[in-house]
Structures are given as structure tokens and as C-alpha cells.
What we know:
Layout: E1 2-5, E2 10-13, E3 20-21, E4 37-40, E5 44-47, E6 52-55, E7 62-63, E8 66-67, H1 68-75, E9 85-87, H2 93-96, E10 100-102, E11 108-110, E12 116-120, H3 121-130, H4 137-140, E13 149-152, E14 156-158, E15 162-166, E16 175-181, E17 184-188, H5 196-200, H6 211-228, E18 231-233, E19 242-244
Parallel strand pairs: 6-9, 9-12, 12-13, 17-18
Antiparallel strand pairs: 1-5, 2-3, 2-4, 5-6, 7-8, 10-11, 14-15, 15-16, 16-17, 18-19
Amino acid sequence: MKILPLSEGAFTIDKTKIFVPFNLDKDDLQQRPIGSLLVEVQPFCIITNQDILLLDTGLGFQIQNEPQIYFNLKSQGINPSQITKVLISHLHKDHAGGISFRNNIGHYSLAFPNATYYVQKQEFSFAMDTGYPSYITDEFAALYHHPQVQWLEGNGSIDNYIHYQITNAHSPYHQVFTIKENNETIFFGADDAPQLKQMKNKFVAKYDFDGKKSMELRQQWWQQGQQEKWQFLFYHDIKTPIYQHTT
Length: 247
């Protein structure tokens, strides 16, 4: 399998839940509000034998008059129309902003015309009910009753090689994905496992729905990944988007 990180850049986020661009060469984290977190925003494209997968969709920003996720895919030689499956971990705005795009009269359409979107049904209901600031409902409301959406309920598998697990850890109804093909295993923990340093240290995050469970799951996945030589994808890691155990 081929992994293509689709970096949208570095940002800080504080209690306002607003993502503010951060220039790693020029900006000073100490000049940002107290409690600001420095994060990458980085969806992933994975090319398998049967699919071109997109794992989460980024913030939904525009660049050069088109969705940034389109620009980043094209930069990697992938046309957005080639995406066959969009796997959504959860619908927080930094993961779901690129699900759709808005035209010049304000109408939202799903961004990937030939893809099936895989979304937890309870996550969608919860996000629609909760709304701003964590969820921008206009950006994913187009999923509702759309024929391209496959609604998931609980744990399961897709085409016998993509496995999903609902965790209720970072947020209610958050899910993670394990992709297995040709003796390779790719694990995408999204915001349950957002950064390499959190895998290596016991860390309970106040921003998680269930911080203790998130920590325990990270320890469990890290140990299993070490035994089975997983490749980990880290959505919010500034330096290490991909990490593989080799020993």
C-alpha cells in the first residue's frame, strides 16, 4: 500500500476551538493564548490494490480557488474523482471540513463524486444536534439521505480488508480504522491517537470525551502495533505523520 500524507499546515488551537495558522519558522507558541496546542492537520490518501482511500478530509479551506484537499491530492498525482472511499473518523470541523464544497450560490455538494463515504450513524446524529463550535453542520449536512453514504453502526469491516472500531474515546462515536493488505497493516487512530509522543507516554487529555480510555487504547494499540509491525498514521503530528515499528 502507498501512503500519501496531505498536510494542510500547522495550526494552534485554544479553548475557542478556532484553528489559527502557525508558521513553524517564524511564529512563537508562547505568543499564542495560554493553553494553545500546536497541531498539524493532515488527512491521508492510501492507494491499495482495489481502492484509493481518503482518511478524513481536513479543514475544508480553499487554496487557489479550489478546496485545499483537491490541491493537495493533485499535487500527489491524484484526481479527486479517483477517490473511491472516504473514511470518516468523526465529524469535528478539522476532520470533516472537506467532506463537501460550497458553490458560488451557497449550495453544498459532496466533494468526491465517485466515492462512498463511511460514517458512523450515531456520530452524524450527535454532531447535527451538537453543532458549533466543534461541528460545522453545513459542511456535512449533505451526507443526510445521500446515496453515496454508507452508514455504519458499531464495529465491522468493509470489503474484508478495512476494519473499523467505534471507541467513544476522544468524542462520542469516534471510530478508528485498521487497513490490512498483503501482510501490511495501517492503523489510523485519528484523534484517539493523534501524535507519536502520545503513544509513547501515558497522557490523559482534558479535551477528550474519555481521556483515560483514550490513553488506555493508545497503550493497547502501541503494544499490538509493535508486535505486528503496524504503520501508524498521525493526523496531528507536526514532525512524524507516519511511523512504523521495525523491531
